[in-house]
TrEMBL record:
It is found in: Endomembrane system. Coiled coil: none annotated. The chain crosses the membrane at residues 27-46, 58-81, 102-128. It comes from Calypte anna. This is Calcium channel flower. Belongs to the calcium channel flower family. The keyword Membrane applies. One of its GO terms (cellular component) is endomembrane system. GO terms for biological process: vesicle-mediated transport. Keywords: Membrane, Transmembrane, Transmembrane helix.
Length: 172
Protein backbone atom coordinates (compact mmCIF):
# COMPACT_ATOMS: atom_id res chain seq x y z
CA UNK A 1 0.00 0.00 0.00
CA UNK A 2 1.44 3.34 -1.00
CA UNK A 3 1.42 6.51 1.04
CA UNK A 4 -0.98 8.06 -1.48
CA UNK A 5 -3.56 5.33 -0.77
CA UNK A 6 -3.18 5.92 2.96
CA UNK A 7 -3.71 9.65 2.52
CA UNK A 8 -6.81 9.00 0.41
CA UNK A 9 -8.31 6.69 3.02
CA UNK A 10 -7.57 9.19 5.78
CA UNK A 11 -9.23 12.02 3.84
CA UNK A 12 -12.27 10.08 2.58
CA UNK A 13 -14.18 9.78 5.90
CA UNK A 14 -13.46 13.43 6.64
CA UNK A 15 -15.06 14.55 3.37
CA UNK A 16 -17.98 12.18 3.79
CA UNK A 17 -18.79 13.42 7.30
CA UNK A 18 -18.63 17.04 6.19
CA UNK A 19 -21.93 17.13 4.24
CA UNK A 20 -24.16 16.29 7.22
CA UNK A 21 -25.92 13.31 5.62
CA UNK A 22 -26.77 10.33 7.80
CA UNK A 23 -25.54 6.90 6.81
CA UNK A 24 -28.97 5.61 5.81
CA UNK A 25 -29.70 8.65 3.65
CA UNK A 26 -26.33 8.26 1.94
CA UNK A 27 -27.22 4.63 1.17
CA UNK A 28 -30.65 5.70 -0.06
CA UNK A 29 -28.99 8.10 -2.51
CA UNK A 30 -26.59 5.38 -3.63
CA UNK A 31 -29.41 2.89 -4.20
CA UNK A 32 -31.38 5.53 -6.10
CA UNK A 33 -28.27 6.14 -8.22
CA UNK A 34 -27.98 2.42 -8.93
CA UNK A 35 -31.65 2.14 -9.90
CA UNK A 36 -31.37 5.34 -11.94
CA UNK A 37 -28.35 3.99 -13.78
CA UNK A 38 -30.10 0.72 -14.58
CA UNK A 39 -33.26 2.45 -15.80
CA UNK A 40 -31.24 4.88 -17.94
CA UNK A 41 -29.25 2.02 -19.48
CA UNK A 42 -32.29 -0.11 -20.32
CA UNK A 43 -34.39 2.79 -21.59
CA UNK A 44 -31.44 4.22 -23.51
CA UNK A 45 -30.83 0.93 -25.27
CA UNK A 46 -34.54 0.66 -26.05
CA UNK A 47 -34.56 4.24 -27.31
CA UNK A 48 -31.72 3.48 -29.75
CA UNK A 49 -33.83 0.87 -31.57
CA UNK A 50 -35.44 3.36 -33.93
CA UNK A 51 -34.78 5.32 -37.08
CA UNK A 52 -35.40 8.77 -35.58
CA UNK A 53 -32.00 10.43 -35.06
CA UNK A 54 -33.16 12.47 -32.03
CA UNK A 55 -34.31 9.28 -30.28
CA UNK A 56 -30.95 7.67 -31.02
CA UNK A 57 -29.10 10.71 -29.65
CA UNK A 58 -31.28 10.71 -26.52
CA UNK A 59 -30.69 6.98 -26.09
CA UNK A 60 -26.92 7.36 -26.36
CA UNK A 61 -27.02 10.23 -23.87
CA UNK A 62 -29.09 8.09 -21.48
CA UNK A 63 -26.54 5.28 -21.68
CA UNK A 64 -23.81 7.84 -20.97
CA UNK A 65 -25.87 9.00 -17.97
CA UNK A 66 -26.08 5.41 -16.76
CA UNK A 67 -22.31 5.03 -17.03
CA UNK A 68 -21.70 8.26 -15.11
CA UNK A 69 -24.20 7.29 -12.39
CA UNK A 70 -22.54 3.90 -12.00
CA UNK A 71 -19.11 5.51 -11.93
CA UNK A 72 -20.01 8.13 -9.31
CA UNK A 73 -22.46 6.30 -7.07
CA UNK A 74 -21.60 2.59 -7.27
CA UNK A 75 -17.99 2.28 -8.43
CA UNK A 76 -17.86 -1.42 -7.53
CA UNK A 77 -19.97 -2.01 -10.65
CA UNK A 78 -17.07 -0.58 -12.68
CA UNK A 79 -14.23 -2.38 -10.91
CA UNK A 80 -12.44 -3.29 -14.15
CA UNK A 81 -12.13 0.34 -15.24
CA UNK A 82 -8.87 1.81 -14.01
CA UNK A 83 -10.06 5.36 -13.34
CA UNK A 84 -13.31 4.38 -11.59
CA UNK A 85 -11.98 4.87 -8.07
CA UNK A 86 -10.48 8.26 -8.93
CA UNK A 87 -13.78 9.49 -10.40
CA UNK A 88 -15.71 8.13 -7.43
CA UNK A 89 -13.34 9.84 -4.98
CA UNK A 90 -13.76 13.14 -6.81
CA UNK A 91 -17.55 12.72 -6.84
CA UNK A 92 -17.49 12.08 -3.09
CA UNK A 93 -15.85 15.46 -2.54
CA UNK A 94 -18.71 17.30 -4.26
CA UNK A 95 -21.32 18.95 -2.09
CA UNK A 96 -24.89 17.59 -2.22
CA UNK A 97 -26.22 20.64 -4.09
CA UNK A 98 -23.54 20.18 -6.76
CA UNK A 99 -24.49 16.54 -7.21
CA UNK A 100 -28.16 17.52 -7.31
CA UNK A 101 -27.60 20.10 -10.04
CA UNK A 102 -25.40 17.73 -12.04
CA UNK A 103 -27.73 14.70 -11.85
CA UNK A 104 -30.91 16.68 -12.51
CA UNK A 105 -29.47 18.51 -15.50
CA UNK A 106 -27.92 15.31 -16.78
CA UNK A 107 -31.31 13.56 -16.62
CA UNK A 108 -33.27 16.47 -18.09
CA UNK A 109 -31.21 16.78 -21.29
CA UNK A 110 -32.45 13.59 -23.03
CA UNK A 111 -36.03 14.51 -22.18
CA UNK A 112 -35.55 17.93 -23.78
CA UNK A 113 -33.88 16.28 -26.76
CA UNK A 114 -36.64 13.75 -27.42
CA UNK A 115 -39.82 13.90 -25.34
CA UNK A 116 -41.12 10.33 -25.31
CA UNK A 117 -42.38 8.03 -22.59
CA UNK A 118 -39.18 6.02 -22.79
CA UNK A 119 -37.01 9.03 -22.05
CA UNK A 120 -39.36 10.28 -19.34
CA UNK A 121 -39.56 7.00 -17.44
CA UNK A 122 -35.94 6.10 -18.14
CA UNK A 123 -34.63 9.32 -16.63
CA UNK A 124 -37.12 9.54 -13.75
CA UNK A 125 -34.97 7.55 -11.30
CA UNK A 126 -31.82 9.46 -12.28
CA UNK A 127 -33.68 12.73 -11.74
CA UNK A 128 -34.95 11.38 -8.40
CA UNK A 129 -31.34 10.78 -7.37
CA UNK A 130 -30.66 14.44 -8.01
CA UNK A 131 -33.74 15.41 -6.03
CA UNK A 132 -32.59 13.29 -3.08
CA UNK A 133 -29.22 15.05 -3.11
CA UNK A 134 -31.04 18.38 -3.36
CA UNK A 135 -33.05 17.55 -0.28
CA UNK A 136 -29.82 16.67 1.52
CA UNK A 137 -28.44 20.06 0.55
CA UNK A 138 -31.38 21.77 2.26
CA UNK A 139 -30.38 20.22 5.56
CA UNK A 140 -32.16 18.63 8.44
CA UNK A 141 -35.53 19.73 9.68
CA UNK A 142 -35.44 21.51 13.02
CA UNK A 143 -37.37 20.40 16.06
CA UNK A 144 -40.63 21.99 17.19
CA UNK A 145 -39.19 23.38 20.44
CA UNK A 146 -36.54 25.48 18.73
CA UNK A 147 -39.10 26.80 16.21
CA UNK A 148 -41.44 27.69 19.09
CA UNK A 149 -38.63 29.59 20.85
CA UNK A 150 -37.76 31.51 17.68
CA UNK A 151 -41.43 32.35 17.14
CA UNK A 152 -41.80 33.47 20.76
CA UNK A 153 -38.70 35.70 20.47
CA UNK A 154 -40.06 37.27 17.28
CA UNK A 155 -43.41 37.98 18.95
CA UNK A 156 -41.68 39.48 21.98
CA UNK A 157 -39.54 41.67 19.73
CA UNK A 158 -42.61 42.83 17.81
CA UNK A 159 -44.47 43.66 21.03
CA UNK A 160 -41.47 45.63 22.29
CA UNK A 161 -41.33 47.60 19.05
CA UNK A 162 -45.07 48.35 19.27
CA UNK A 163 -44.65 49.62 22.84
CA UNK A 164 -41.79 51.86 21.80
CA UNK A 165 -43.70 53.33 18.87
CA UNK A 166 -46.82 53.70 21.01
CA UNK A 167 -44.90 55.61 23.69
CA UNK A 168 -43.25 58.00 21.26
CA UNK A 169 -46.54 58.74 19.51
CA UNK A 170 -48.23 59.55 22.80
CA UNK A 171 -45.46 61.96 23.81
CA UNK A 172 -45.45 63.88 20.56
Amino acid sequence: MSSQDEQFRAAAPEAAADDGMSWWYRWLCRIAGLIGGMSCAVAGLWNCVTINPLNIAAGVWMMLNAFILFLCEVPFCCQFIEFANAVSARAEKLRPWQKAAFYCSMAAFPVLLSLTLTTLFGNAAAFATGVLYGMAALGKKGDAISYARIHQQQQQKQMDEEKLTGDTEGQA
